[in-house]
């Protein structure tokens, strides 16, 4: 396909489904693993000379002067960048409906009255609909890769925290953010992970982990693998049709020689949501302080004192959800409340990580549905309170809080909408997720 | 925790946000509900538990103190509308 044909397809898809905030082609002259592959980039990952807004109006006009490390790696392997995909503002959402002021909400590829999921909704929708060879670079803080991948019926892998460099990623919450791939085929997920994984001295949280050939795990036998099915994830509050679809897939894994048992994660089931949101909001309330109309993005005329000027720009250009999260995060870090909320959440996080680590002493991977429901309609979403929105992440926040790799695997359909199965691995066990993904293809 | 409109306004001002009355009215009950739900973590016994600031164990990452390439002044100022003589120009700090 020529560049003109790709642009024309992307633009016509965009007109109908609104998957990208920016359509712009940047080719690479290098030859490598991604030659001939189109790569879309979530808006929060910076691409040199391509407007990068993290889905927020406060960054209107921001044209980065450098590439994120993952972008540099994609270019070195010959990938063609095709644009910036839609997301909830800075990643603040599970449905991609919390887009920044003036930006478009993407529509589900299977039913335009439903959402794509969030926050990497544009990446997932485009991955499902693109007729050309495409891999998306997406990002997860609390489930933003697997949730939209589940709602749009594609593969999405969120790697171990620190495996992929965050240099050039606009922070939502530093201790939680991870960049990962989305694709229609397991092979492509493995391929992109191979390209982007690796230590980077520009990211102080990057981990020195031995280089792995992720593609070699695709197609590898799973017999003897020990699988734990998370008991709490298939009970109350989960769409019964989703639960039965997951059960069918579990039977497939057993038939391929895996041992399957039920496991319980009571602490994660009860406390991961609160601990996750407190930590994420505390971190984001400091990260977003840099957006103040001084160095990039939206500016206003320099009037009034610095407090008045900064407050004016921020109040005008952040959406309601960004303001809510900044306020809660600031409150939870304030003197008098810090110990009860922020510090407590960090201690609870330790307990939640310990619970997972103990479980992984007996199991290779854990399985649950990715989301408890199919993609909701926009009118259903309109009826939800902010807390109802947060509760949708009940199954995905745990692995994110613990920095564990997890992947969405398309598992079937309920009411003609995709159902996703989530497989969670121990730190740096991405290979096992890819093995399971291929067996269930 | 009972959140009042005054608390919302105070915290917003600390975070350099100026809320409209409509926003204060909308956020106050929402924040109360959210913080109440989050208080659930009180139930967990963490008396002898350390904090996890990161999900995986990380060591201090220090590099050799050798000068490297850095952003040019031109690039650093490329995205600002407010600059003067190779500097960012900010709002007044002292009235």
Descriptive account of the structure:
The complex is a heterodimer of chains A (441) and B (95). By secondary structure, chain A is α/β, with parallel strands linked by helices. Helix content of chain A is 37%, strand content 15%. In chain A, helix 2 links the parallel strand 2 and strand 3 (80-85). The longest helix of chain A is centred in the middle third of the chain and has 22 residues, at 266-287. The mean pLDDT of chain B is 94. Chain B has a domain at 5-41. The longest helix of chain B has 18 residues, at 21-38. With 95 residues, chain B is mainly α. The chains are: A alpha/beta (441), B mainly alpha (95).
End-to-end Cα distance of chain A, whole Å, is 26 Å
Question: Residue-averaged pLDDT of chain A, rounded?
Answer: 97
Largest sheet report of chain A: 11 strands, mixed
Secondary-structure-derived class of chain A: alpha/beta
What's the average pLDDT of chain B? Answer: 94
Question: In percent, how helical is the residue content of chain A?
Answer: 25-40%
How do the strands line up in the largest sheet of chain A?
A: 1-3-2-4-6-5-10-11-9-7-8
Instruction: Tell me the CATH architecture of chain A.
Output: Alpha-Beta Complex
Number of strands of chain A: 11
Q: How large, in whole angstroms, is the Cα Rg of chain A?
A: 20 Å
Give the count of helical stretches of chain A.
Answer: 14
Proportion of residues in β-strands of chain B: under 5%
Query: Which spans of chain B have pLDDT < 50 for at least 5 consecutive residues?
Result: none
The level-1 CATH class of chain A = Alpha Beta
User: Could you give a short account of the major beta sheet of chain B?
Assistant: 2 strands, antiparallel
């Amino acid at each position: 396909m020529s560049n003109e044909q790709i642009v024309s397809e992307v633009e016509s898809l965009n007109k109908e489904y609104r998957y990208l905030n920016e359509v712009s082609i940047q080719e690479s002259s290098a030859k490598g693993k991604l030659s001939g592959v189109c790569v879309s980039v979530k808006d929060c990952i910076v691409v040199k000379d391509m407007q990068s807004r993290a889905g927020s109006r406060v960054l209107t006009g921001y044209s980065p002067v450098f590439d994120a490390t993952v972008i540099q790696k994609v270019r070195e392997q010959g990938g063609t960048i095709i644009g910036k995909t839609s997301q909830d503002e800075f990643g603040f959402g599970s449905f991609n409906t919390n887009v920044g002021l003036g930006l478009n909400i993407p529509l589900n590829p299977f039913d335009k009255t439903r959402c794509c999921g969030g926050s990497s909704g544009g990446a997932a929708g485009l991955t499902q609909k693109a007729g050309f060879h495409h891999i998306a670079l997406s990002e997860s803080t609390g489930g933003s890769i697997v949730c939209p991948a589940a709602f749009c019926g594609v593969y999405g892998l969120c790697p171990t925290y620190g495996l992929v460099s965050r240099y050039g990623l606009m922070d939502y919450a530093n201790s939680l953010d991870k960049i990962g791939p989305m694709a229609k085929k397991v092979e492509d997920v493995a391929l992109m992970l191979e390209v982007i994984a690796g230590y980077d001295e520009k990211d102080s949280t990057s981990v020195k982990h031995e280089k792995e050939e992720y593609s070699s795990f695709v197609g590898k036998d799973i017999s003897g693998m020990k699988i734990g099915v998370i008991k709490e994830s298939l009970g109350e509050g989960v769409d019964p049709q989703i639960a039965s679809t997951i059960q069918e897939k579990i039977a497939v894994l057993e038939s391929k020689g895996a041992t399957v048992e039920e496991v319980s994660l009571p602490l994660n089931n009860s406390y991961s949501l609160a601990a996750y949101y407190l930590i994420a909001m505390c971190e984001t309330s400091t990260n977003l302080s840099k957006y103040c109309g001084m160095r990039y993005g939206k500016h206003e005329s320099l009037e009034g004192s610095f407090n008045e000027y900064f407050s004016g720009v921020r109040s005008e250009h952040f959406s309601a959800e960004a303001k809510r999260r900044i306020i809660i995060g600031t409150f939870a870090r304030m003197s008098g409340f810090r110990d009860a909320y922020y510090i407590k959440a960090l201690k609870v996080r330790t307990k939640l990580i310990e619970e997972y680590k103990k479980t992984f002493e007996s199991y290779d991977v854990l399985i649950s549905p990715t989301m408890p429901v199919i993609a909701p309609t926009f009118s259903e979403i309109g009826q939800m309170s902010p807390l109802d929105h947060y509760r949708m992440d009940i199954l995905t926040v745990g692995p994110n809080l613990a920095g564990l790799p997890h992947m969405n695997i398309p598992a079937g359909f309920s009411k003609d909408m995709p159902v996703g199965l989530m497989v969670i691995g121990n730190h740096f066990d991405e290979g096992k997720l890819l093995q399971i993904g291929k067996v269930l293809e | 925790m009972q959140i009042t409109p005054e608390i919302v306004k105070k915290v917003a001002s600390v975070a350099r946000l100026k809320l409209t009355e409509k926003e204060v009215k909308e956020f106050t009950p929402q924040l109360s509900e959210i913080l109440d739900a989050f208080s659930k973590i009180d139930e967990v016994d963490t008396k002898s538990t350390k904090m996890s600031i990161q999900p995986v164990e990380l060591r201090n990452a220090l590099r050799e103190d050798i000068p490297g390439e850095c952003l040019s002044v031109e690039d650093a100022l490329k995205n600002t509308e407010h600059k003067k003589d190779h500097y960012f120009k900010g709002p007044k700090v002292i009235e």
